[in-house]
Specification:
With 130 residues, the protein is mainly alpha-helical. It has four helices and no strands. The protein is elongated and about 55 Å long. It starts with 5 loop residues before the first helix and ends with a helix.
């Protein structure tokens, strides 16, 4: 089986993850903190931005590849993929220390939750049958 939809979103999300990783690494180099956050709030923020991306991306991409492998129609996969990318782009800008209720944080988490739920429903339809 050739996967044609999920890799598009895996590539996009991987690029976002790499940018977030680079931001963590560059700040580690600037602060001399090689492990943990060293009590630096800016480093902690960047670590969580990258960590949240890795956590959500892995979950949704696994669900998407399973759904695609089971024969889910491409438009439904694009729904999950687009929501995932939107969430991964929005969330880092909403993860701010001033407020836990930043709108972009809600957009980031909300779209990723919807992406996961969409893929889960697609898998469930295949598992339970018509």
């Amino acid at each position: 089986m050739v996967f044609s939809v999920t890799p598009i979103y895996a590539l996009a999300v991987s690029a976002i993850c790499l940018v977030l990783w680079f931001r963590v690494s560059s700040l580690r180099g600037a602060t001399g903190v090689s492990f943990g956050d060293g009590g630096d709030p800016a480093l902690l923020r960047r670590i969580r931005q990258h960590g949240n991306c890795a956590e959500w991306s892995a979950l949704v991409l696994i669900l998407m590849i399973l759904a695609e492998g089971m024969g889910t129609p491409a438009p439904w996969l694009h729904v999950s993929g687009a929501l995932l990318v939107l969430g991964r782009l929005a969330h880092p800008f909403g993860l701010v220390p001033e407020t836990a209720g930043h709108p972009l944080r809600y957009v980031g988490n909300g779209t990723n939750l919807l992406a996961a739920l969409n893929a889960m429903v697609c898998i469930g339809i295949h598992v339970l049958g018509p």
